[in-house]
Every structure is written in C-alpha cells, then in structure tokens.
Amino acid sequence: MRSLPIFVDLSKGRIVVVGATPAASSKLETLRRRGADIAWHPVTLGREEAERRFSLRYDHVFRIVEGEPAVRDLAGAAAVISAVGDETDCRIAEYARGLGIPVNVVDLPELSSFQFPAIVDRDEVVVAVGTGGASPVLARRLRERIEALLPSRLGALAEFLGHQRARLRGHGSPVASDRRFWEEIIDGPVAQQVMEGDLHAAEQLFDARKRAGAKQQIGSVALVGAGPGDPDLLTLKALRALQDADVIYYDALVSPEILSLARRDARKVLVGKRNGQSSEDQEEINRLLIAEARNGSRVVRLKGGDPFIFGRGGEELAALQAAGIAVTVVPGITAALGCAAQAELPLTFRDEATRLVVLTGHLAKKDSAIDWSGLDDPQTTVVIYMGLTSAAAVRDGLIAAGRSPATPAAVLARGTCPDSFSVAGPLRDLATLASQAGDGPALIVVGDVVARSKPWRALVENAAQIIAEAA
Ligand code: SAH
Fold first, then answer.
1. 377, 388, 404, 464 — which has fewest CB within 10 A?
2. How many CA atoms lie within 13 A of 465 on its CB side?
3. Helix axis angle, 154-170 relative to 199-211, nearest 10°?
4. Distance from the CA of 400 to the center of ligand 1, in angstroms?
5. Mind listing the pLDDT tens digit for each residue in 125-154?
6. 234 CA from centroid of ligand 1 (Å)
7. What is the pLDDT of residue 362?
8. C-alpha distances out from residue 385 to 275, 311, 337, 357, 394, Å
9. pLDDT at position 260
10. Main-chain phi, psi angles of 448, to 5 degrees
C-alpha cells in the first residue's frame, strides 16, 4: 500500500474515537497529548465507568458520549478512529466513508482510509512513521530509534525559528529566505542556547548573526567514502555531508539508494567510469571540483568504499589543497571490510593470519608490474581489488611466489548489495571461481582464513553431501 503522511490541523475539527479497547485508549492518549478536541464514544462502557477511567486524565476538550455514534455524531469531524473490535467498526467505517471523513479502523487497513502512524512528539516537531499498515511493530521500533536521535527540546527550537522567521519577513529582510543562514543558525550556538532553555541569550546571538548579514559564501569539498553498497554502512558523517551538499560528484560504484539519501535539491553528477579512469579524466574531475568550490558550493566527492583505498582520493586531496580549497575527508567502509563481514571471513586471526595485504589486480596482467614477493607467507591474507579479469595472473603470481596452490581463496562479488555473490575454492581454481562472479565489482581474497568463511563452509558441506549420496 502506498501512503502519504499529512498533518492534520487539530484546531480545525474534532476527532471522534469509538471503542474502549486498549487500542482505543492508546489513540486517546496520543490525541490528548497533541491537544486534539476529542469526542469519545466508549460504546461498551457506561458514562460513569468511562469517566471513572479517564476523567482525571483528560481535560475539557475531551467529551464522553454514550452509545454508538450515529451518522450525525460523525458529521463535521476531522477524522474518525474506530477500535471497538466487533462489527460496529464496519458500520462506523461505512458512515465515515459516506460523509467523506477520513477513517481509521484499528488493525483493519481494508476498512481504513488512513493509517495512524507511530509518532515522535516534540511539540511543533512531529515525526510520523508508517509501514502502510504492514507492521505496526516495525513502525514502533523505528520510532524508538528516532526518539533516541532527536533532542528533547526540538519543539522549542522550531517555535523559536518560526518566531524569528516571521519577524524577519515582517521587516522584509532578505536573509529570511536564505537557506544557509538558517542552517547556520540551526547548526550553531543559537540553536544550542534555545535547547538549553536560554531564549534570551539565543535571541541576542541571533540578532548579532543577522546584523552580520549574508556572509560571503565559502565553498568546500568533502571527499566522502560511501562504503561498499549497503546504505546502512554509511557513517553518520557521510550522511550529514550528503544532506549538506549543494552538488555531488559520484562514482559508478555508488548505489542509487545511497544517492537518494542526499538533499533533494542537490545536483548529482556521475563522473568516472566503471573500470577506472584515465589521468585526463581525473584532471577534469579535479578541475570540476575546484571550480564548483570556488563558486561557493558545498561539494561532495562521493566514492565507493573508502576514498583512500584505490579511490584516487589522495590525488584529489592534493589537487584541492594546491588550489587552496577547504577540503575534508570522510572515511568509508572499504570493500574488503564490507565483503569480509558479509562472508564471515576474519581477515586476521590469532596465530593464523597476522598480516593483511591489500593490492590492486589492475596491473597484474602486465608482466612483473606487481611485486609478489613476501606473499608466500602462509600467515598473510591477500585481498585483491580490481582483480577479476586478471584472476589467472593473480593465481600464477601467488603460486610462483611460493604460495601453495591449495591455499583457500574466495571471490566476493557485489558485497553488501542485494545481489551479492560469493564462491570459494583452492587458489589453483581461482580463474574458474572468478568466471562465476558475474557483472559488478568483486574482490579476491586468498589465505588460510578463507577456510573459516561462509562460502568455504558451503563448499565443504556440498562436498560432504556428494560423498554421502555416493556412498
Ligand atoms: N575505494 C573503493 C575501491 C575502488 S576500486 C573501496 O575502498 O572499496 C574498485 C574495486 O573495488 C572493484 O573492482 C572491486 O574489486 C572492489 N569493490 C568495490 N565495491 C565492491 C563490492 N561491493 N563488492 C566487492 N568488491 C568491491
């Protein structure tokens, strides 16, 4: 079910609640907290019993009406919530539909024209969470998480901002509609004072900031790691950078789910091809980043994994610094770490893997472009990026260096993405394993620890089954 959260102005009409079930009570509680004008038809309780239960807890806008509501009792209501738990709900829903009034029958989405969301209540600020009626428990869980994220005095801040905005508009001040000005207020000491309850100090700071006027905007660039694919693996810093950015230059490896977390009106530009870019391309990207930052934009350069692991982040950083641009680096979870976690493959292990080497297979096809020496050590885990098309050369290089052809190896493709794939086998079979990976990015991991991984365990189980069937 597709739904759209909208906010009902509770001063414009009463809410009719029907029923005395626990579900009805919880809706009454929420509505009362939000200051709704409530008409309650407990239906299964007499007035006295209903009053005894609720009179101490409700104020004057809470009216108890005896008996089941008739059509005329619903007329003019802003919304109707029915939670009797029997066929009465059906009747109420029909009346409401006939009158064109939004109706929610608790736990019966098919009778409802709206769902009651789980809400995070910060006075003026309300966050609604809905699952289209599919799982109220999931909605509540999400609400609890958001609850923990949002400062408790957020409502006071919204009120303060609303008041100041009205003031500025009244004076015809141009900063009233300057997004950056407001962002600075929200992110800075003014908001802090409001949330600490010192409105006087907040107001003084606000006026000082306002007098300074719209400052010359200074652009900046953040080199941001987007992680291996799963949007939940973004860091909080990366998320904030995405939400602050005016323009985002992203790589082909960055998933649409991650881009959708960016500010709605940010400009998003795809740069860089799948299989690495030429130096000219890279210079062009550097030029774009510099020009955009000089223009006053907050630029995010978004890269798969971590910017400093085979991500050209170092080159971009140097170019930006040479141009005098303010630049920050936000690390990301590199493919090796994301893929290893998903494959349950510990990259180091006490007494078994004491060294981790990360290398690019891009150069493996060119003779002796990679120095394989030292990789014969059985306690070294080797992770190869961009190695899929050169798997045979990687295999030959490692074996020539002295690594046993029986060393466990794995190919981990599209790690942490919905269509991830993994396969394992001995190093000598690496080319065959690589040929099974399909499209998209993939890593090769070689080392004894691969024997602990999920794909290796699957291989062993499979072999055991074949032997059992043959016996
Ligand atoms: N900066 C990136 C790496 C970019 S190089 C990082 O830190 O992860 C591109 C290579 O990374 C791909 O060829 C592939 O080997 C690897 N890679 C990136 N994302 C991957 C993923 N989700 N699964 C497997 N390998 C991935």
1. 464
2. 6
3. 40
4. 26
5. 999 999 887 888 999 899 988 987 788 889
6. 15
7. 81
8. 11, 11, 12, 11, 11
9. 93
10. -60, -30
The two structure tokens encoding residue 107 = 């736990």
Task: Please state, in angstroms and rounded to a whole number, the distance separating the CA atoms of residues 381 and 398.
Answer: 12
Is the per-residue pLDDT at 186 higher than 90?
no
Model confidence at 50, pLDDT cuts 50, 70, 90, reads confident
The span from the CA of 23 to the CA of 25, in Å, is: 5
Looking at per-residue pLDDT, the higher value among 403 and 178 belongs to: 403
Question: 327 pLDDT band (50/70/90 cuts)?
Answer: confident
Which residues does a 6 A CB cutoff place in the pocket of ligand 1? 228-229, 253, 303-306, 309-311, 334-335, 339, 385-386, 412-417, 441-443
Q: Which of 224, 443, 445, 446 to mutate to test the pocket of ligand 1 (most atoms within 8 A of CB)?
A: 443
Dihedral over alpha carbons 419, 425, 429, 434 (to 10 degrees):
10
Instruction: Tell me, in angstroms, the distance from the centre of ligand 1 to residue 228's CA.
Output: 7
Write out the two tokens for 285: 């990207």
Q: What is the torsion angle, in degrees rounded to the nearest 10, for the CA atoms of residue 387, residue 389, residue 393 and residue 396?
A: 80
The 10s digit of each residue's pLDDT in 147-175 is 877 888 899 999 999 999 999 999 888 88
Residue nearest ligand 1's atom 6 by CA: 305
Contact indicator for 307, 329 with CB cutoff of 8 Å: yes
As annotated, the active-site residues are 251, 273
- Phi first, then psi, for residue 442 (nearest 5°) are -150, 150
Query: Which atom of ligand 1 lies closest to the CA of 303?
Result: 1
Q: What is the pLDDT of residue 277?
A: 59
Return d(Cα 5, Cα 128) in angstroms, integer.
7
Range 329-342 average pLDDT: 97
Nearest to 233, CA basis, from 332, 91, 145: 332
Among 312, 386, 389, 453, say which to mutate for ligand 1: greatest number of ligand atoms within 8 Å of CB: 386
pLDDT averaged over every residue in the chain: 90
Placement of tokens 């910017």 in the chain = 307
Contact 27, 116 (CB under 8 A): yes
Task: Name which residue sits closest to atom 11 of ligand 1, judged by CA.
Answer: 385
